[in-house]
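User: Quick sanity check before I run a bigger batch. Here is a single chain. Can you write out its predicted 3D structure?
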Amino acid sequence: MQVTEVSAEGLKRAYKVVVSASEIAERVDGRLAEIQKQAKMPGFRPGKVPLGLLKKQYGRSVLGEVVEQTVNAGSQKAIEEHNLKPALRPKIELTSFDEGQDLEFSMDVEVLPELPQVDLKAIQIDKPFTKVADDELEKALHEFRHSQAEWLVPEPARASQDGDRLTIDFVGKVDGEPFEGGAAEGFKLVLGKGMMIPGFEDGLVGVEAGADTVVEVTFPEDYGNQQLAGKAATFDVKVHQVEAPKLPEVDAAFAEKLGFENLEDLRSAFRSRLQERYDDTSRFRAKRALLDALAAAHDFEVPPGMVDLEFEAIWKQLTDEMERTGQTFEQAGKTEDETKTEYRNIANRRVRLGLLLSEIGRSNEIQVTPEELARAVASQARRYPGKEREVFEFFQQNAEAREQLRAPLFEDKVVDFILQIAQVTTKEVSPEELMRDPDDAAENQGDTAAT
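Assistant: Done. Predicted structure follows.
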């Protein structure tokens, strides 16, 4: 078997592998000899069937099996002889072969780049954080109190007002014609919550049970369904019921009803829940800053095939969402080619960061334990009540699905490892600043770096 490197450009390698006809024949005869030991054929004792007869009957299938094994062995030899670290499965093409002739095939492979050494101690990032203020805790308790309200028909009956809950039927129309998704029956709507498009809830203040009314609205210009965005619409509404909330008192009895020993325990639980949300966001912002720092400091060539796969995945996600919402590239202010360039840059960044994090994890022996993966599978199963067993069996039988769970767990463990070593400066900020979308903040500051 002869392996010859044909070309080496960047991270792409091409090889020609030639296996002599005599080697192929030797492999075929060896395989036929193995079959002979087990072969049974009328007129011959077990194991005594002549090789010539076996070759006549099984020769073509054995030859195909040998060719496949030889190609696999040849490609593996090329990888080992040239110390290759393939980024993706090599592309194999049979270029020349016929029975009694040499076997020749080509192998194209993309290899992983030599990764730079990352000085984790030199990384400097800011980690914003915030604490739950007393007034925010009171606001959360107030909102929860309203969620526990008992809804009663007012006596005597009266017109609706903000805070009331209406039971309604409605049909939305544009240019006098009903539109898809614009109708409902028995719909319960709390006025003043802002759950509907602007103007809809305002138009239902002051109505009484049994009333028929028409509400006029205009869909926002940035409405998710582009076919409705900016258009005037009317809603024919039938009011079945008007209810007012009877709010519980936030006291010891209220806390005990919810399973807490006293009111202070309830307040403590709410504060912890709010703080957990802030802590999760704080970690996300620190992770984002870390990835930005790694991307800025380490720019290297990545395998084009890996970028193509990543790009195809995020491009499909984008176009599926655009199709669902009816949005176009023109409405987003960019051409399709401009958007593709932007998303290919994002794909390149993701692959580059993925390789860096993978190498940092490997060199520091960071692994996802079976217990951690099992907890992730259990978390997925809980999302499908009544089908937990099917979910567990799916992940047990599907290695690719398990890898999709393992990958983000591994990334988070590597990120946490780096954050323990890097120079992390904590900075207390307001809740509004912490929760603000970092992309919005970057745009306001003229930062156009890709995420």
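The longest strand covers residues 232-246.

User: Great, the batch can go ahead then.
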